[in-house]
Amino acid sequence: MDKTIAAAAQRRVAGCRHRFDTRFEAYFDALAENLDTPALSRFTPRCLELLRDLSLRGGKRLRVALLYEAARLVTDERPPGLEEAALSIELLQTHGLVHDDIIDDAPVRRGGPSTYYAYRREFPGDDGTALGLAVLAGDLASFLSMHVLLEADAPAEIKQAMLGVQLRAGAETVAGQITDLERDFEPLPSEDLLHTVCEYKTTRYSILAPLRLGLLAAGENLAEHDERLRRYATPAGISGQMRDDYLDLFGDESVTGKSPGSDIRSGRRSYALRAVLAAATAAERSLVESALGDPRCTAGTVDRIRKIALEHGVDDALRAGMRRYAEEAAAEASGWRPHWREEAVAFFEGLPLWNVQRMQ
């Protein structure tokens, strides 16, 4: 039964992605023509080109699927403002990716160069300019994500509510990023701290915000439903973050688009690395600690840490954890049937389960 529900969710995600990607490409085509930028500037068009490239390069568009399906909980029509909300979500995601890659000093994103490293190649020996341009590119994406909502063909009160959701999500995500860096100063962060980082850095803008935006576009009163949305988003977010952390240590680069071990090189005490540190012997822990935060950490060292993790069953424990939280989210969604349309409820029931299954 789980596989059937998950497969249906997978098909919906694929359909949402196809529908949105065409719209996203058209948005960037129009942006290049309509955005009021300095006529003599050469750097501004290049910035827009890099944002377009990163935005269109890949991603499952899970946030967009959550948005579309949240509206479908209420109606099978496309309510005004829904498409602009989708653009806003993905532009805010682009902002986050650009800045994450700066913080992590990550050369690769979605199978291509990160925005930061693209600039570093264009300005060899001038890291200050490369850094400044990458920061500004991320900033521009965040401002565009808000501006697109103001241009939505939707009632003013809905646009205002949507803008409030996105501004709040953006601020909370930055707070999560700050706490993410703080976490890495803990020798062995507690699981509660990891859950808090996940809540602020990921869950609130990747799950809650799309759900809220979709329901707002469909005319729902968020106050009546926000608690059940939170009960769904929290375990779904933890399961998804565990999956990402698992793939960073155990994943295949040809599938993930990122080099394994990026969390190790950036010194990130993720769910996976916390589990390794907790289970390791003193000698093994010393090896892991020496590699954490070392950007020159070799593939061989990452492989040794992976073997330590496998020997201690960290892979099995992470899979069990992400499955447990996915099932908790699915159970919450199954209780939505008295409130919303069956076919959309089934999507939210299946999505966390598919998210776990698609890595195996």
From TrEMBL:
Cofactor list: Mg(2+)
Any matching Pfam family: polyprenyl_synt
Keyword tRNA-binding: no
Database matches in PROSITE patterns: POLYPRENYL_SYNTHASE_1
Keyword Metal-binding on entry: yes
Keywords: Isoprene biosynthesis, Magnesium, Metal-binding, Transferase
Stored PANTHER family: FARNESYL DIPHOSPHATE SYNTHASE
Family, per entry: Belongs to the FPP/GGPP synthase family.
UniProt-recorded name of the protein: Polyprenyl synthetase
